[in-house]
Structures are given as structure tokens and as C-alpha cells.
Write a structure and sequence with these properties.
Layout (H helix, E strand, L loop, with lengths): L1 H26 L3 H4 L3 H27 L12 H36 L17 H25 L1 H11 L14 H18 L3 H18 L8 H4 L6 H7 L21 H6 L16 H4 L6 H16 L10 E3 L5 E3 L8
Antiparallel strand pairs: 1-2
Amino acid sequence: MFDVLAYWWWLAVDWFSAHAVGPVLAFAHLDALFGEPEAIAEALLIGLVQIAIIGCLFRPLEKLAPAERWQDRRLTGVDLRFAFALVALGPLLAFVVLSPFARAFGNALDWIGLPADGLLHYIPHIDEHPYLAFALYYAANDLAYYWMHRAQHAIPWWWALHNMHHSQRQVNCWTNSRVSWLDLVLESCLLATVGLVMGVDAGQFAVLVLLTQLVQNLAHTNTRFGFGRVFDKLIVDPRFHRLHHMAADPARPNLHNCNFGQVLSIWDNLFGTALYGEPPRRNGVDDAIVDADNGRGMSVMQWYTLRRFWSAFTSRAGWKPQSIVFDTRSRSIPDGAQANPK
């Protein structure tokens, strides 16, 4: 199945590259700068397919079975704009960051003696079992994301980037795109490293990215359904991930540190961070400075997030795993400490 999907995917990429992206780059005299347009075409197609499925399937699900009923969806509008912005930023990320990173990392693997085709190819006859190879890579990718996500919540400077995603009080089908663009670069480089080390096929990687993004979009929907008592122990569903977005509860201060899985909830169950059975709780953050993102536009949110990040990144406390909040000047302070306004 994956070979068939990859085949049709690359046909679509080639057509879109030849008939849309290539001519536009040539017309704008950017073809010499960007070179081969296939990476741009692929990133654009992933974004467009993702938006089409969210709008045509996931958004109606929110109307059919909402987890929360809102008088208006005013706060969700910026998340929709983030989704369209990422369609435009995807090619830039692929060309400016990931392509050079992949080349440099590939050279590094060759220098230290690892095979260019990755660790998967140490397994005898793995090429004869593409489904097994894909499953092994998917598990490695998802496990890497799980620990990365825990680091985003535990390391103060990384939380300073990630907390913009959690500031949304109305978590919805577009919220997965509400991210700091610097955080997105860090995530992409880390997960691309896993792909390069494992040696995943390029066609399978495109399918994996799209499937992973769609599961994450579904998990963020404002819906009250789950996957049942068996499958919710395996796959992240909307009820499971909604608990991850709950605001901190002073009466149960560590309750919100849960459900970090991206697609597979196996890791949360394995490492003791899974939470089930809690009633729906208020989404968002308990930090008033971060919560103020809900009154800002997309570019302003990026600016304030970078300010918070730089404050934490350049401080000793920003490297010590702990819970932090921010003062009115975006300076990071340990949670519970009194900020000095001067």
C-alpha cells in the first residue's frame, strides 16, 4: 500500500512541479535561486491536502459532536491563519533549512562510517518487507517526538517557544498549526535526523509526514469522541490530547503534565504519563503573560514568543528543568517566585 501511495504521490508532485511551481519560479526569475522545484511542490501539496481534509472533514466533526460549546469562535481565527501561513512557509522550511541540513547530516553520517541508506538497512532482507521498515521508522519517529515533546515542557527556554501553542483557550481543528516558527525549525531538524539515521525512503517520508499531521489535526479537534478502551491505549484521540492542553490546576499541580504522544499513545502508557478518565477541563495556560497571546495577531505572537524565548535562553534558570512564568517584560522566573518589576 505504501509503495502505491508513494508512487501516486510522486506522480502528483512531478505534475505540480512541472505545471505550477516550475513555471511560477521561472516567471519570477527565482528558478536559479531555488534550483529543483520538487521539494517546493511537495511541501505545498502536503499543506494543501492537509487544509482540505481539515476543512471538509474535521471542522464538520466539531459541529457534530463538540467537546465544548463556545458562543463564538473568535479565538480560533488566528489558528486558521497559522494553517495557511504554514502552507507558504513549508517550501521555505524545506529549501532553506531542511535541504542543507539533510546534505550536511548525510555527509556527517558518511564521515563517521554509518551507511548512507541508514540503520534500517542493517536488518537482513529489510528491503523485501517495506511495511515492516515503515512501521519501524514510524515507531522511532514517534518515540523521538514523545521525548522531544516532554523536553519542550520541561526545559524552560523550549517551553518559552512551545507555550504559544498551549496559550489557545479554544483548542480546535486548526490549533496544530499554531506554533512558533523557530520551534518548528527545531522540531523539523530533530525529526529529520531520525529519518536520516533510520534511512527512510523519501516517498514513504512524504506519506508519513502527511499521515502524522492529519492525526495531530484530528487530535486537536473540539470533539468529544475517542477510539475506545483498546485503541485509545494505542492511538492519540481527541479526548486524550485535549487533556494535554488543560490549564494547570493548583489543587493538582502536576496533572497537566500528561499525554505527550504525537500519534501513538503507547509511549505515554509505557513511561507513566498517560491520563484517562478525567472530565473535560479548561484549556490554556495559567500564565497571564502567555495567555495574552489570545488577544494578538499571528506576527505579534511570534515576536512576543521570541522575546520570552530569548529571556529564558540567555538565563541560567532557562536551562534548568523547572516550571517558569514570565513577568511583564517577558523575563522568565521560576513559577511561584515573585518577579521584580524593575
